[in-house]
Design a protein that fits this description.
The chain has about 100 residues and is mainly α. It has one domain: Helix Hairpins, CATH 1.10.287.3510. The chain contains four helices and no strands. The protein has helices at about 1-15, 20-40, 45-75, 80-90. Helices cover about 70% and strands about 0% of the residues. This is NADH-ubiquinone oxidoreductase chain 4L.
């Protein structure tokens, strides 16, 4: 029962902090850990299967987190996401999509 409450609290915080990238990823990581603990508390799987399942969940969670960070940094041109924006933005294209040629 406690795990379900914690999972729904993580889901609520995921929706609540959707504009702050770091807190959004932390709440998503909390949800993944609680989901793993709920699955591992059932005695249906062996420990190696649990470890492999946890590895798959963490890889999926981190790839979703990276894609969300890139998407949010492109949507919000704020100072919090300017470092991510500078890494993902193509410097040879201006704001309107025109190609900028380097000046020599």
């Amino acid at each position: 029962m406690l795990m379900k409450i914690l999972f729904f609290a993580g889901l609520m915080s995921l929706c609540w902090w959707r504009k702050n990238i770091i807190l959004l990823l932390l709440s998503m990581e909390m949800m993944l850990m609680i989901l793993f603990l709920m699955i591992s508390s059932m005695n249906f799987m062996y420990s190696s299967t649990n470890s492999m399942f946890m590895l798959v969940m963490m890889v999926i969670g981190s790839s979703i987190g990276i894609s969300m960070m890139v998407a949010m940094s492109r949507l919000q041109n704020s100072t919090n996401s300017s470092s991510i924006w500078s890494l993902t933005f193509d410097k040879n294209v201006d704001f309107f999509g025109a190609i900028i040629f380097p000046k020599f």
